[in-house]
Give the backbone structure.
Amino acid sequence: MALTGRTALLSALGALVVGFVLPSWLGILTVQLALLIAILCDLALAAPVRKLHFTRTGDTNVRLTGEAHIHLTITNPDRRPLRAQLRDAWPPSSFRPGDDIPASRHTLRIPGGERRRLTTTLHPTRRGDHHAVRVTVRSYGPLGLAARQGSHHIPWTLRVLPPFTSRKHLPAKLARLRELDGRTSILTRGEGTEFDSLRDYTPGDDTRSIDWRATARRQTVAVRTWRPERDRRILLVLETGRTSAGRIGDTPRLDASMDAALLLAALASRAGDHVDLLAYDRRVRASVQGRTARDLLPALTDALAPLEPELIEADARGLAATIHRHTPRRSLIVLFTGLDTAPMEEALLPVLPTLTQRNEVIVVAVADPRIEEMAAGRHTPQAVYAAAAAEQTRAARRHTADRLRRHGITVIDSTPTHLAPDLADAYLSLKAAGRL
Amino acid sequence: MTTATATSAPGRTAHRLWTRSRGVLLGLLLLVIGGLTLAALQSGEQHGRLDPRSADRTGSRALAQLLASRGVTTDVVTTTEEAAAAAGPDSTLLVTTPDVLTSGQLADLHTATHHTPGRTVLLAPGTAPLQIFAPGVQADPRIGNTPRPPGCSLPAARDAGDVLLGGIRYATSATTADRCYNAGGSPTLLRLPATDAARDTVLLGSADLLYNHHLAEQGNAALALQLLGAHKHLVWYLPSISDPTSTAPATQPGLLDLIPSGWRWALLQLALAAACAALWRARRLGPLVPERLPVTVPAAETTEGHARLYEQAHARDRASAVLRSATRTRLAPLIGVPPAHAHTPDLLLPAIRTHLGTSDLASPDLQALLFGPAPADDKALVHLADQLDTLENSIVSQERHAPREHPDR
């Protein structure tokens, strides 16, 4: 049950009756009794909430920053007409900030025995699964003095997928891929011209591919590159431990990694490679395996959507073991992790050699533009101390990256805006070099 | 999309604030205008009432001048303290509006005057002043002002003859009291001689006979002059709100005492209405929705922490070493020194000198800049950072204008 402002107003007007006509207990009681009778009548004439019947339809998934429409069909089986205020409650992050009250409330009138459909528009601001909480209905009587109130639980889940903002880089990278394939005849770096298609001999190259004529012109042995290999395996490994929780601007590192992983997956599936995904901290958080190129991206976004950084230290040994289980053949392992000195040197460096023995490894770390900003600070002692601290951080990251490179690992340390294209470029150059 | 929301948000909030508060503002405006109108309407007549300096209809300047011409000195006071101090022996104390005084003020005034010889004149005192100044006297309901005959043996009244009097009537059982100007059985002028001192208290039912425009009528002036001019000195007390003792709470009636009794029930009903309003506002449309919030850890938090630690400890040595090392690391590839030798002065400095072509001029500076001691204070540290920037910029700009062939490219 709920009262309305009208009840309070009537009660206040009753003060006039009491003051002018009956200034005694009798007057007070008379006013209260009249009000009570009116409220009881109103409650009796209000449509019951418990009997209402609800059905939900609408979107089941939406990209972050997108708009989802969830429909709610309400049937009023009673004879009494329903005049109600309805709240379709969702977690606060399902709405635009500050918009949750107007967006979740609806006013409706349903004559007896009819049904109506209303639409709640959600603008999720957080990735993951959003569950509908409950539908609360406040059914007013004809006088608008009192209302019956009750809730129904109508389950619905809206999966909010990663935004995949880096998809704007995809056409450019695909064009690059076609150049590598030799499917386009453009005179740019690639297989089109003879000089650029040669590269230095590296141990492991087929000796039959050595171009002796070019070797004669140069000091080093040159090999001719062929059409890029297809059907290679790529394993995207997202480390979801505490280092991935650090926020750059307003988004965690993990989200930037996801964006880059999605671009790489889109590119690699077009290039004919097989892409698998693994998210790990102390156990497997998400895994996508053996998907065909067509349903790879939906499967990936679906697996990544509910992924959240965990505030625990990742288990590097377990991670290496899991990677081994997932890569029965030679693969390109793309490890999204941090470049922080302590966890990297203590945990990851000892296990990396077991991975690099058989596989090609790319370590992807998300750099913070704030560090660059701090390093450029001058003019006040505060800013200069901050610059020193930033330089210290940069030096440590560079040192770690150098140690990784010495193991033959490709290291990408970029800010979130450049991470996805940089990773795509690294993949393309590895593919062009035939190192997959 | 985000920018659109950001720009439209403040406007929307301002608009919402306006729509929400305009009712309240309108109410306040009406209240202020009503108050001002009421004040303007009521201010005219009563201004300077019974003030011996006021020439208004209800002022008393005529009387004051008459008294002065009779050789009576008049002291106008506005606070109880001043009144008590001025009312010395052989003086008359006139309290123009005794009803506005608090019981504390009245008691102070009474204790200050009742042992000194003289006279106290109270104009239309109600119950509270009577209890203190004239115990045993009762105030009867008001009666209209008309000229009345004296009807007593008091010389002042007898001399004055008919006088415009009325207002409150006073009843007492004291035998020594002079009862004059009877109206409906009770006197409107009562003179009570004190028992122990040479002091008497005069109660006047109304103050109208002291007004400028009534003074010339009947025997008003004669009575007033004889009542107030009996002693050489007159203390004219005009109680004012600015008197600090007037705010003493003492027995001020509370809010509930001021409300007519019938409206107390209405007030109770209003309280019930307020309870209804509270119930209306308190009922939520469904419970709050909890949500597991993500942790917000800035990625650069450790670095920021480092920066603040350096600053607090004034770690100039560490900061300068880091900045120099960073500059050397960046410079080395530009001038053709392998990164491994970037921190060796013997290899790095000559390379920079040859690169800049200013070997003779900047040589001691360069050594101190890139490998020197820690700066002495924060100012020097800021300066060092700027100098490192300048050096780097000069080499980078040279590199841009005349790119060198890199052996490793």
In short: Residues 381-406 of chain A form the longest helix (26 residues).
